[in-house]
């Protein structure tokens, strides 16, 4: 029988999973970026921009990523903080040559990301993508 994992081990695995996902995204490998996401992932983008809203499932998330890629999005994760349930990622992003910072809060269940909530400058998103 396998030994139970400690909360610290689970947190380390979640952080490793998040780092791998962000790295794959930066390489343009969407499939690899979604490997550790639940099929029914919920992704929340705050604000009233054309990309704001709640996206459900990998297909809707892929459509969001396509829209973001149209504006030459680059994301550089700078810090990862986590526990056995959540990983917070402090991210510096550049879209259409303009930069802003954000925090992504990834919620994990059974080793999979089930929800991502971004905290960011919503006026920045409106400036880049327009309003709904």
Main sheet overview = 6 strands, mixed
Average pLDDT reading: 95
**Number of E strands:** 6
* Cα radius of gyration in angstroms: 15 Å
CATH structural architecture = Roll
List low-confidence stretches.
none
Instruction: State the order of secondary-structure elements, H for helix, E for strand.
Output: HHEEHEEEEH
Fraction in helix: 25-40%
How large is the share of residues in beta strands? 35-45%
Structure class: alpha+beta
Shape: globular
Any idea of the CATH topology? Nuclear Transport Factor 2, Chain: A
- The total tally of domains equals 1
- Going across the biggest sheet, name each strand in turn: 2-1-6-5-4-3
Number of helices: 4
In the CATH scheme, the class would be: Alpha Beta
Task: Compute the separation of the termini in Å.
Answer: 53 Å
Could you walk me through the main structural features you see in this protein, from its secondary elements to its overall organization?
A hairpin with a 2-residue loop joins strand 5 and strand 6. The chain contains four helices and six strands; from the N terminus they run H-H-E-E-H-E-E-E-E-H. The protein has one domain: Nuclear Transport Factor 2, Chain: A (Roll), CATH 3.10.450. The protein has 132 residues and is of the alpha+beta class. The protein is globular, with a radius of gyration of 15 Å. The mean pLDDT is 95. The chain starts with 6 loop residues before the first helix and ends with a helix. It has a six-stranded mixed β-sheet with strand order 2-1-6-5-4-3, with helices on one face. Helices cover 35% and strands 40% of the residues.
